[in-house]
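Morning run. Coffee first, then this:
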Amino acid sequence: MAQNMRGKIIEAGYPWRLRITFSNSLVIGEAATYSMHVRAKAEDVNPIVELTTANGGLVRIDDTTLDIKIPATQASLWPVGKTVVMDLVRTDGGSPEHTGLQLQVPVRNPVTRL
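And here it is:
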């Protein structure tokens, strides 16, 4: 079932973070590993950025809470005025398992561009 939630808009080129707490059956074990691709459209071949537990883009806070962290990147990579999509896949164990989490986040140009 899809669920809408309010989150922080991505400011192109700046770091971004979102903390998600799961209230369903998803348990984020201490040894679990995850991967998330951020793309302008789901069908795009190349992601804008790849987030993993290994690179610090996905950080376990506790059994039900996960931080998603996008580092500062080149602003021109982002589709300003549109949304990006991302989903969460568990990668430890036998084969990758989709968690059912998919996000759409708007992107805008920041006023201050350093």
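The chain has a mean pLDDT of 91. Good start to the day.
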